[in-house]
Task: structure prediction
Amino acid sequence: MKLLGPTQYPRLNEGIGLVLLALGIALTCALVSYHPLDPSWNTATSLVRPVNLIGRVGATASDALLQLSGLGSFTVPLLLVALAWKWFRSDRIEAQFIKVTGAITLVLGVCTALALGPPWRPFGGAIVAGGLAGRVCADFLVSELNPFGAMLLTGFVVILSLYLVSRFSLNIVWNWLKPVRGLFLRAFNRYGSWADKRRHERAERAQQQAERVQQKALRREIPKPPQQPLPPGKPAPAVATPVADTRPPWETTIDKSADSADAHEIPIHALEDYQPATAGSLAPPPPPQPFEAEPVRRQIAPPAKKAKSQYLIPPTELLQEPQARPPYDSQELKDIAIRIKSRFEEFNVTGSVTQINPGPVVTTFEYKPDAGVKYSRITNLSEDLCLGLQAESILIERIPGKQTVGIEVPNTRREVISLR
Result:
């Protein structure tokens, strides 16, 4: 039987565990209900009955622990409860000396950390937060390492003590923080998507505003007819002056006197030696002369000359059977897939390449983004992907019927596509 480890009798182990648990609870109650005026070894008072919940024993024990280690005394009940749990389960305690050393250094580390902090005197100023032991250790470390070095060493000692006493591991803390990390990552991705959406909306609004301003400017411009310059020495055309209309207005009634007056004003010229014409004196009209039309000369168009063409008949080699395709370099394709994935992760776009479809000219990499990654964020990184892969151009399109995005990358060694 070891000093701290349980025995081979389970019922005895449970009894000892129950005693340790009761001792830890009683010590916690004594520390919580500590009163500076309770009678103890270093306190004389007129109180007959102590205020402490555990009585005179609790007042004495709590006063001794608080004066020695300050608030670091509350780690002692925790260690007792942990030891009681080991006894309840009959678990063996390996390396007991290391466990005891770790418990002592843990109490001293907590006391020193409290003493290095701001000055604080709880319980009505009766004790120091770090106690006597913490004050002595803090003064020694500050004198040798300065305040920053003292705090750094104290934190290291506390973490190392937890390693010695329990199964504490930083990996466990990292796993505990996994939900919190996922929450922050989702919030960051949502903020990135929201920022991209706002940026696109602002760009569209700016473009629409520019188009409206341009249309208004075109509407305000009035087209003017072009003015031709006058040749030198030629006067400009005179503008005709308007002529007043002096004609009498139309009348619906007929004035016979006015018509007769106008008829008198017309001059009459008399014919000289007028004789009435007879039938014989009338000469017959001359016969009409026939009109001779000029013959139309017909010009025969010369035959069209056939234009010389440089068209060449395709060679028959195109119909030959193609040569066997060389095997693909699978390692090179996998390296390109890894480079694509790492390039996207540089811009907080997470996902994986699920399939590679090599072709004679281009190779299609099927990329499946993680949940919460928008398709627009992937397409906006085409130019950055070209820089990362040192390619001339890269086409990114979604694949219908699948949850993947196709990324077409030009091959380093291109093949000739045959007709057969």
